[in-house]
Amino acid sequence: MLLAGWLPASASPWNAMDVAHRQPPASARLDVGSFTLLINGQRAGREQFSVQRVVSQDGGTLEVRSESAVNDRRVAMRLETDSAGTPVRYSVEERRGADVTLRLGGQRVRGRFATLARSSTGEAAREYLLRPGAVVVEEDGVVQYALLVRSRTLREGDGITLPSLTPIANAQGAVRLMLESRADSIVVAGVRLAATRWRIIANSRETRLVWTDAEGRLLRLLIPDRHIEALRDDVPREVAAITNTANAPRQRRPLAASAAALPETITPRKAYAF
């Protein structure tokens, strides 16, 4: 349902974001790191991220935050979901150079998800019906897949279809998730890790291949149709301790500040300290 460019004050995504900023939920960090983004095999950018378990008054249990930079495009994202991965709150800010090209906020309101987007072309509001199991899957971004595959108990070769929201594109549809293999492996920072490989077919019919470790932490993303690849820069912390990589020289890519320095709450004016 497309609204007439406004939402009631009590349901405004911007109000929800303000409240979240004043009263951050209690949290415990589950994963933190960064990915190098490659296009046609050439380094094009980076995405920093964190995944946290949260306890919020409106039912949020998991939160992902990311900051990405590809050429002159920079995007800050925060997504909070319930235990099923269904969105509770969502915010995105996109910049090209010094210009803000998109600011989008969303929140769950009585079984629906209300969004308000402000861009160079104007302002638009929308409400999506939140069907059971609905997830957010944008066309770009890496860390969003951490919530999509987390805690899935599929057998090899099995799949599920979930309702999906793509707020940036103002669209909704379905995403297909299949577990291809639990016996794959990926090299991260010179260390070969056991990995689970997933195949994801988004609403656009575009295929993504995702590799995770046994805890569901992302290791690699591949979008073959667009020749896009995201490679994790460092071994997940607990795995690094187990494999005792301290004896080997660490190959850190010469990129900017560590994702461990991500702020507890991403705000538009502080989100781009790369």
Characterise the protein shown here.
- This protein has 274 residues and is mainly beta.
- The protein has one domain (9-251).
- It has helices at residues 13-22, 144-149, 237-243; strands at residues 26-39, 42-55, 62-70, 73-81, 87-96, 99-109, 112-119, 122-129, 135-136, 159-166, 171-188, 191-201, 207-212, 218-223, 228-232.
- A 15-stranded mixed beta sheet has the order 8-7-6-5-4-3-2-1-15-14-13-12-11-10-9.
- Helix 2 (144-149) links the parallel strand 9 and strand 10 (159-166).
- 37% of the residues are buried.
- The model is unreliable at 1-14, 16-22 and 239-274 (pLDDT under 50).
Itemize the secondary structure elements and their pairings:
Blueprint: H1 13-22, E1 26-39, E2 42-55, E3 62-70, E4 73-81, E5 87-96, E6 99-109, E7 112-119, E8 122-129, E9 135-136, H2 144-149, E10 159-166, E11 171-188, E12 191-201, E13 207-212, E14 218-223, E15 228-232, H3 237-243
Uncertain runs = 1-14, 16-22, 239-274
Which whole number gives the mean pLDDT? 81
* Major β-sheet strand ordering: 8-7-6-5-4-3-2-1-15-14-13-12-11-10-9
Q: What would you call the structural class?
A: mainly beta
Number of domains: 1
Percent strand? over 45%
Helix content: under 10%
